[in-house]
Here is the input.
Amino acid sequence: MKILYVEDEITKNIPRISRLFDKYLSKNAKKKLRDLENDDYPPSPEEVKKIVQASNLIEIEYSFPEALKKIIENHEKYSLFIIDRNLFEEDGYDFEEVKAADPSFTEEKYELYAEREGDYLLNILVYKTDVLSKFYFMTAYSAKEEIRGTADIQTHIDMNKFSTENFIEKGSEEDFKKLKDIIDNIPILNLQYENKEYLHILQKHINQEITASFLKILSQKDDYNSIRDNLNLMRIIYEQILTVCADKIPGMKADCKDEKGGKTIIWMKDKNHIDGDILRNFLFSIRNIANKFGSHYTDKPVYSPTLNTINALVYALKDIILWFGQICEKYKKT
Here is the structure.
């Protein structure tokens, strides 16, 4: 999950962007933004966008057509939308580009939503997601002044789908602090931020599906009803890690074939790819427990996995992921 931040004048508002997303930006990213701000040559929007998006938690768009495209195609990937209400570009935007993103966009809508393009984005999202908790307008004036004469926004408010509290007046420090507090306290983003090292390794060396599976485990590791699901996901991640290792570690595929059990673990230990105390035991634990108590388990055991079991295996899996990242770097040319 990510934040989608849409503002047409991002190069003029670097300090605000840096302050808003301070929690999720690295020291290096914040330094780069300061350097851009103080440079004698005006930065390009793409430069700002690239620096901020390196966080993997924030996406920035500065044009209405591109923002519209992202919202139509991938609205479900965002946990928060922060949208500048007026996205009208100085020279206007390409009508055909907007039409390509949204075939229902007409010349009449172009005129109707000029200088309040954010309203159009809200209207698309209002029946697709919970905009009351996820969508915030950045505006030049107070909410009372902003909604005057805009029947569609007032309708959303009357139906309790939107609120004047969702308007953030740009010049208000109080509103800024309110928005920053919202940004800093999104549970799923905090979870991603706290585990960014593990997620990055899985994303880089396996794929998005496995990364999402690990994030799902983290998000439901304290849910008793998810114990079996978590074990099944752990088994899949474990097997995918060994599959990639077999392609990278010299001789592993030839000797171990497609075996993902004890033989392979012992082979890696004997070849000094893992130690005999920590990683060997962690790999055996995940493999054995996940296989025995996963989705197809029906026996009545002497002792069943608990939430303590899941949390212990999560920490074991984290160590395995770190080791996996080292293996991928060590044999990246193999």
